């Protein structure tokens, strides 16, 4: 095995370990049952604008994918001739399995054409007005500003819809892409599983503002079987890029909103409203980040770091009537979020 193949394999193994830690956190925070009733909060709705999705690529039931719509004039039926859209859709559900996903097909190639901006605007408007989503993922970039897209982004921001955008994969060789450079979006950078910025990651646009990164290297997810070459039984692909990191960051925000919709935070809807603002969500991202080479590397389980390994054993908690590991984790996450909420919202009734 050559050195490059070894490096790729190491990145993939590290990414798998990152997901293992994430899923352990999800198990601690999911409410399960309260009394005899299952506690199922209103699902978080996430829209992603990409190359579409190939439903045959998934090895599991896809009832969480609620709608797929093509905004291409030339192609009305749904599918994915590129592959990245399928990979990104699967990735959302890997991070936030209880989220409802809405897929908007805005391109049929990896390279976006200038006329694609009309597709993006139409998809944004549909996500805002028809799907009524909580989060929109924009895993692409244009080289220039688009007034018509910015108009839709402003409407989304006014509706308190979180907007996540990829910063591109060209390092310092190209300018910061749009819509990542819009003040309305949350731009996301790519890093390996340990937080080291990816070699293709561009420098932060504004050194005075905090920049956020998360896992974007060696990430395995579904891939259209028709694009898998001779072996169509291997319907997955390992990918790296700021688009991968952006999807993971957006789905992580979905987990935060999902937790806010569970008791006891659900008793204070103003807390969720604050979390659905760019300022509010970035406060929480900052809380669960580690500084690495000038970036804030988002590590979701830091939100409950102290309770992820509770000071009491499960046996002690059960025998003595103390708190379970899950109760401690949920308490830690709730306390961490409320500590960041502005006081006037926290005390509001």
In a nutshell, what does this entry contain?
This protein has helices spanning 3-29, 84-95, 116-131, 147-158, 242-260, 269-275, 278-287, 305-308, 314-320, 325-340, 343-346, and strands at 33-34, 37-38, 45-50, 65-70, 100-105, 135-138, 162-166, 186-191, 212-215, 219-222, 236-239, 289-292, 295-298. With 349 residues, it is α/β, with parallel strands linked by helices. Strands 4-5-3-6-7-8-9-13-12 form a 9-stranded mixed sheet, sandwiched between helices. A two-stranded antiparallel ribbon has the order 1-2.
> Which residues form runs of ≥5 with pLDDT under 50?
1-6, 33-38, 306-323
How many individual helices? Answer: 11
Computed structural class = alpha/beta
CATH class: Alpha Beta
Number of domains: 1
Radius of gyration: 20 Å
CATH architecture: 3-Layer(aba) Sandwich
Principal-axes shape call? globular
Integer average pLDDT: 85
Strand content: 15-25%
Share in helix: 25-40%
Largest pleated sheet: 9 strands, mixed
Order of helices and strands: HEEEEHEHEHEEEEEHHHEEHHHH
Quaternary structure state of the chains depicted: single chain
Strand arrangement across the biggest beta sheet:
4-5-3-6-7-8-9-13-12
- E-strand count: 13
């Amino acid at each position: 095995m050559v050195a490059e193949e070894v490096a790729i394999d190491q990145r993939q193994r590290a990414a798998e370990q990152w997901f293992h830690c994430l899923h352990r956190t999800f198990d601690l925070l999911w409410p399960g049952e309260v009394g005899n009733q299952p506690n199922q909060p209103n699902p978080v709705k996430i829209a992603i604008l990409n190359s579409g999705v190939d439903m045959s690529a998934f090895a599991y039931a896809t009832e969480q994918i609620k709608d797929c719509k093509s905004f291409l004039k030339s192609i009305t039926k749904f599918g994915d001739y590129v592959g990245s859209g399928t990979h990104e859709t699967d990735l959302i559900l890997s991070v936030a399995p209880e989220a409802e996903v809405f897929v908007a097909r805005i391109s049929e190639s990896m390279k976006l054409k200038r006329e694609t901006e009309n597709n993006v605007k139409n998809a944004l408007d549909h996500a805002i007005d028809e799907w009524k989503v909580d989060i929109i993922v924009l895993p692409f970039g244009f080289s220039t500003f688009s007034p018509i897209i910015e108009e839709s982004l402003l409407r989304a921001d006014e509706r308190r819809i979180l907007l996540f955008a990829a910063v591109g994969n060209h390092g310092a060789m190209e300018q910061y892409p749009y819509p990542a450079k819009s003040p309305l979006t949350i731009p996301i950078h790519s890093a390996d599983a340990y937080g080291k910025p990816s070699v293709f990651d561009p420098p932060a646009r504004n050194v005075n503002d905090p920049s956020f990164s998360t896992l974007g290297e060696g990430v395995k997810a579904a891939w259209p079987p028709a694009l898998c070459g001779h072996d169509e039984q291997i319907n997955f692909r390992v990918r790296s890029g700021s688009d991968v990191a952006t999807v993971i960051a957006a789905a992580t925000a979905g987990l935060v909103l999902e937790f806010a919709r569970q008791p006891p935070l659900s008793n204070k809807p103003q807390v969720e409203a604050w979390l659905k603002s760019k300022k509010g969500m970035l406060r929480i991202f900052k809380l669960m980040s580690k500084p690495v080479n000038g970036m804030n590397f988002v590590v979701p389980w830091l939100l409950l770091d102290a309770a992820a390994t509770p000071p009491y054993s499960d046996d002690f908690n059960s025998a003595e009537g103390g708190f379970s590991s899950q109760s401690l984790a949920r308490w830690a996450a709730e306390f961490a979020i409320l500590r960041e909420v502005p006081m006037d919202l926290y005390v509001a009734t």
